[in-house]
Amino acid sequence: MSSRRDRRRHAAPQFAGRTLDAEALFRPADAKVERKTRQLCREVERTLSCALGDCRDALLRELVVVGVEPAPDASRLAVRVLLPPADVDGRLVREHLERMRGHLREEVARAVSRKRAPELTFELAAPETT
C-alpha cells in the first residue's frame, strides 16, 4: 500500500496550484512580452519620426525612420534610419544623430510609459537605387 507521501514524491511539480510544464520553463519568450516589445518599437518609431521631422537640424529633418527593433531586448532599441537620397556623408549624419541622442531619448521617454526610457542606437541604411 503506497502512502500519500510516495504519491507526492512522484507527481509533477506544482506552483500556486498549477502543474509546471518543463517545456514552458524553457520556452524562449512569452507571447505577451513579444507583443509588448513590438508595441513599444512601433510607438518609438512614430515618436522618433515626429521628433526628427520637427528638428531644427536640416540634415536630420531629411531622415526617415524605417524601423525600430530590440537590440537585444526592449531596454536598448536599434533605430534604422534611411539616409536622404542627396549625396550626404554617413559619418556626418551619425555625428548629428549622436549629438541629438539625448534629446531624442527624452522625446521617447515622454511618449512611452515605462520606468526607464530605452537606450537608442542608430543604424544608417542607404536608399535603394533602381
Q: Fraction of residues in helices?
A: 40-55%
Radius of gyration: 23 Å
Count of alpha and pi helical runs? 5
Largest sheet: 3 strands, mixed
**Overall pLDDT metric:** 82
CATH superfamily: K homology (KH) domain
Structural class: alpha+beta
Let me know the number of strands.
5
Distance between the termini: 80 Å
* CATH overall fold name: GMP Synthetase, Chain A, domain 3
Instruction: Tell me the fraction of residues in β-strands, as a range.
Output: 15-25%
Spatial strand sequence of the major β-sheet: 3-4-5
Q: Could you give the order of the helices and strands? A: HEEHHHEEHE
Number of domains: 1
Describe the structure.
The chain has five helices and five strands. It is α+β, with helices and mostly antiparallel strands and 130 residues long. It has a single domain, classed as GMP Synthetase, Chain A, domain 3. A hairpin with a 5-residue loop joins strand 3 and strand 4. Helix 3 packs across helix 5. The longest helix is centred in the first third of the chain and has 23 residues.
For the structure shown, list the relevant keywords.
single chain, 130 residues, alpha+beta, GMP Synthetase, Chain A, domain 3, three-stranded mixed β-sheet, two-stranded antiparallel sheet, 46% helix, 19% strand
Secondary structure: elements and pairs:
Elements: H1 4-10, E1 14-15, E2 18-19, H2 22-25, H3 31-53, H4 58-61, E3 64-70, E4 76-82, H5 90-111, E5 119-125
Parallel strand pairs: 4-5
Antiparallel strand pairs: 1-2, 3-4
Helix pairs in contact: 3-5
